[in-house]
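Lecture notes, structural biology module. Today: joint structure prediction for complexes of two components.
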Amino acid sequence: MVYKEKTANFLRKANVSVGDLISASKENVNYEGMLLDRSGNSDDEHIVLKLDNGYNIGVGIDSCEIRLIEKGKPPKIEYSKIDIGKDPNKKDILIASTGGTVSSIIDYKTGAVHPALSANDLLKAYPQLLDLANIDVKEIYSILSENMKVEYWVNIAKSIRSEIESGVDGVVVAHGTDTMHYSSAALSFILETPVPIVFTGAQKSSDRPSSDSFINLMNSIGAASSDIAEVTVCMHDTLDDSYCSLHRGTKVRKMHTSRRDTFRSINNEPLANLKDGHISSINTNNYIKRNDRELNLRSSMEPKVAIVKSFPGITDDVINLYIDNNYKGLLIEGTGLGHLPNCILKTITRGIEEGMVIAMSSQCIYGRVNMNIYSTGRELLNAGIISCEDMTPETAYVKLSWALGQSENLEEVKNIMATNIVGELNNKTSLKHFLN
Amino acid sequence: MVYKEKTANFLRKANVSVGDLISASKENVNYEGMLLDRSGNSDDEHIVLKLDNGYNIGVGIDSCEIRLIEKGKPPKIEYSKIDIGKDPNKKDILIASTGGTVSSIIDYKTGAVHPALSANDLLKAYPQLLDLANIDVKEIYSILSENMKVEYWVNIAKSIRSEIESGVDGVVVAHGTDTMHYSSAALSFILETPVPIVFTGAQKSSDRPSSDSFINLMNSIGAASSDIAEVTVCMHDTLDDSYCSLHRGTKVRKMHTSRRDTFRSINNEPLANLKDGHISSINTNNYIKRNDRELNLRSSMEPKVAIVKSFPGITDDVINLYIDNNYKGLLIEGTGLGHLPNCILKTITRGIEEGMVIAMSSQCIYGRVNMNIYSTGRELLNAGIISCEDMTPETAYVKLSWALGQSENLEEVKNIMATNIVGELNNKTSLKHFLN
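The predicted structure, tokenised, for the full assembly:
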């Protein structure tokens, strides 16, 4: 058992061991499941249960009560200690994990690589992966992706930078799917990279029969070994396991709560498709190639930026709140081509006059903001609102946070927002990239 | 010229006439275009210009300065005064307009039928339409659709109710596209109807060469004459003019800023397709048929309901704002299956404890909220948050406003939210309805 001091004591007091069926109650929520072991480098705050539905959850022991329901046998997970050694003919790929639960290669929700994951473990679980590359693993965070924060992006970027400096040829970032597209956009802006950085995750954890984690991981390793040196997202393209798509990290969005092909390129086509761990087709030559640019961290991010979605009952209360709380940026999800009700125009103008940068995206998701056509749009432009053109609201939000971190000169910030930095903004929109 | 007293004086003083090229300056925005005539039943506050880009805009004369650039000839628009009479073999269809500019059958943005529109005008413009039905026209509102408000929905519903009581066999609601799906959802809940109510609009105004307005209007009249007695949206299904789709008013969303096939059924297939003003195929028998239900207005709506979208930098400030401003309902756009960062869970709980109804939808748009899988979701459910299942965020927002209007008993409101009322909530989601 690798539970540490505090959690080990907690379990000992309740007289439960790994493999037992137990109940854990916390804040009026009750969980029943098998107590799982944790890996050596886990925190000392959580125990992990395997629920009946097949999912694993971590439960913080703080104000948690547990009791034994039925004694069980500890699960046998024995990893051999063989040192595989490096194959000089293969690329060195790092799998960086941003979340952590046990018993999953990639967990559905956290994007966590099994925390105990080593090259040896991988060999045991999915030996095919080691045919593709020399693989090493690093755990950066251990959080649910809905808890991802602006400052964590910076730490992830720094951590990956040091690995690239140490010579890895590509990085796979295992990440929960909920906010993966926010994070892939953030890393795109923060880290100029000479090697591929590929985000991946899974919609079903790897201990479930129909998990998508292996295919996604295998193809992500393929993408990380490729010549496409951008921050990308590699996930299933179809409901079956036939192939994955590689999406530009700034032009992708989670579009379905549960389908494995949930990630879709928005206003773009995917950069490439992958099959069996290799690129099967490339859709464009318009990408940054390996070693085309120097490694460079541009890590300053402004956290006081918010998203406000327009809706028929909106009032200016919410705009006033952010102005009065000294927010530096506001990303509006307007309607249609980028519109807001007249009743909040005056407050938008006040925000801009007081130095807030306000940018307009569209809640349509697909297409391009165009505020030149109607009088309300023109009045917004005249007030100084910025058009986010064909960026998704999520990418525009991340970019605004980043742009405000790069300069204190508001004109410069506006200029950054209007300029394509890492493929997030197409100067021309083809109408054909819709619902693909 | 049909400009009335105030606007006519205003124009006379500047020595400009209909047909002249003029400039109009207002609030630092300058417009140049040809002065258009207005219809007899217009307000006395605006003048209308045709801009170079082909669009018409109304400019309020209050604090507006105009000057003549070049004299022109007034456009010749003469409508004959022939009374067509009713054909007893055809259905009586009302076209109810919610916006108003001149020179458009349906204006791109406002969804306005030409305010001077009469059966005679229609005959002149699109005589084919009168082959389909006996058509009458009514102007309910004259607003840009981004300015649509909760209380306007109620007035539109009341106005349509009285027309149905007077015997119309179907209603086409001409509406701006920006918020059409909010309005179609609202009317679905507010008005139980024994006849079809069909929302339509256009992405390009009818005076532009490639306008979609005629095809949409023709097929909407077909839908309003059909047996599908629900509130629906009828718009182009493809980029060409081949056919329109008829979407359930609660299961549709504007998904592209500018494509004519922007409206897509979400988690559903369209009810039917239409071609040449007639239903060409019906995709389901699961719809309410003509005269299946009595006319019934359920018009109480709670305006103090807001949409809050989750994002990585969100803090509980915005939740606190709505609680402290005594909002009755909050529609959350969570990530993935319906999640929020832990840091705002406590404030969500406070809101619910203080009597706010908080409901969870997903910013993925497609799919279904499921808060049972992960601990954060369970904690939210335990705190009393409601799952919006497979409703779009926009429909869930409208429904929450309506449900809070129907009952002051919070348990009843929650029950309404969890119950399918007008096809807005499927008990089973088929994975196949994705990006169709």
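Point to remember: Chain B is about 25% helix and 25% strand.
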